[in-house]
């Protein structure tokens, strides 16, 4: 009921609320019982998520910094280059320092795991909700290498459920012990699955989730991508495109990165010679062995001494690079110009003011580990 004495139709309320940022309409839960019921309903959560996924203007960026001396990690959330979230976030109990990994983003959720403790949690930055994932009670084989494991996170569209997959390498061969965690049951189970190649453990070659499938880089054969289908729970292998280069050109495998481009999953490939560095953007169509590759455009040339490493592409034309100074540098592909590093020194100011999500206890050297694009959501965990 408004101050003119008539009631706003519920469908109009839903349409208005679903277009607002999560932080804004969460404050409206106290307006009335009707609004409260609407906002906490599953149907409203799904409508809001669908609208966010369809609107590129609602993209958010999570910037992940990591210290060289393993103090702690630092996360910052951005919208259009502006810091929008900078408050302390407690996980409820003391964690081991360092070794924090962001496994992936799906529907506004992040999966975070701690290598040393084998601990996992799910995090919704928009609602501030955090869920500790229960430890697996499944007995491990004697020959499992507990330190060589990889993790993936994504959505099973068949069961409408979220899953975490954990691969633990067995000694002396390419076999893996594979477990899957399902959010709805809050439990782990072992699956029988063949992993076609070793999955790289290199921290610079980040995996990604895209449209029901999780992707890792192959380790033994660097011309492949290993993928896991969240619905059928099977692994597959994708061959990288054949890119002809001169004998004097070096492929910088450790600088290759996944990125989204015009609604498709793409890869930025990096090359260098004695004086120049450049990249190529290729996109994938299809799944598994049926994938076809299309070259989109050439990126560069840059001086090799700059040591630029690509992180992702924004709005189809802005490539974000990082360098030895841990700056984040946008490059406009259309105008062929480097822009000023962003967000200038605001990350360090935020870090020093103890308003970051993870607050360090010393003054470490930071490396920009990743920039992850995500959408705000009301998905409950």
TrEMBL record:
Residues 8-48 form the F-box domain. InterPro entries: F-box-assoc_dom_typ1 (IPR006527), F-box-assoc_interact_dom (IPR017451), F-box-like_dom_sf (IPR036047), F-box_dom (IPR001810), Gal_Oxase/kelch_b-propeller (IPR011043), SCF_F-box_component (IPR050796). Pfam families: F-box (PF00646), FBA_1 (PF07734). PANTHER family: BNACNNG10540D PROTEIN, F-BOX PROTEIN CPR30-LIKE. This is F-box/kelch-repeat protein. The lineage of its organism: Eukaryota, Viridiplantae, Streptophyta, Embryophyta, Tracheophyta.
């Amino acid at each position: 009921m408004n101050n003119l004495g008539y009631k706003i139709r519920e469908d109009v309320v839903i349409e208005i609320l679903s277009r607002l940022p999560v932080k804004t309409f969460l404050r409206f839960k106290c307006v009335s019982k009707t609004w409260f019921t609407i906002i906490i309903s599953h149907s409203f959560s799904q409508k809001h998520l669908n609208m966010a996924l369809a609107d590129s203007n609602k993209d958010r960026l999570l910037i992940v910094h990591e210290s060289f001396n393993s103090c702690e990690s630092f996360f910052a959330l951005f919208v259009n280059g502006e810091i929008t979230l900078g408050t302390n976030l407690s996980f409820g109990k003391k964690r081991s320092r360092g070794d924090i990994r962001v496994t992936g983003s799906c529907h506004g959720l992040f999966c975070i795991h701690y290598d040393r403790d084998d601990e996992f949690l799910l995090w919704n930055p928009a609602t501030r909700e955090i869920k500790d994932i229960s430890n697996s009670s499944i007995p491990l084989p004697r020959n499992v290498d507990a330190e060589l494991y990889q993790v993936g996170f994504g959505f099973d569209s068949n069961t409408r459920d979220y899953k975490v997959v954990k691969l633990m390498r067995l000694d002396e061969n390419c076999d893996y012990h594979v477990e899957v965690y399902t959010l709805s049951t809050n439990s782990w189970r072992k699956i029988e699955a063949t992993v076609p190649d070793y999955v790289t453990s290199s921290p610079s070659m980040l995996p990604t989730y895209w449209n029901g499938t999780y992707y890792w880089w192959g380790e033994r054969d660097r011309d492949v991508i290993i993928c896991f289908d969240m619905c059928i729970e099977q692994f597959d292998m994708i061959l990288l495109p054949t890119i002809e280069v001169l004998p004097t050109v070096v492929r910088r495998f450790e600088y290759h990165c996944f990125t989204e481009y015009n609604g498709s999953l793409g890869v930025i490939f990096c090359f260098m010679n004695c004086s120049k560095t450049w990249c190529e953007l290729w996109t994938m169509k299809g799944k598994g062995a049926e994938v076809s590759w299309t070259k989109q455009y050439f990126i560069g040339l840059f001086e090799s001494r700059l040591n630029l490493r690509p992180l992702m592409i924004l709005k189809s034309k802005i490539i974000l690079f990082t360098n030895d100074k841990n700056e984040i540098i946008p490059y406009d592909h259309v105008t062929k110009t480097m822009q000023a590093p962003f967000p200038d020194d605001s990350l360090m100011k935020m870090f020093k003011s103890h308003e970051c999500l993870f607050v360090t206890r010393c003054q470490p050297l930071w490396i920009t580990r990743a920039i992850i694009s995500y959408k705000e959501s009301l998905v409950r965990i």
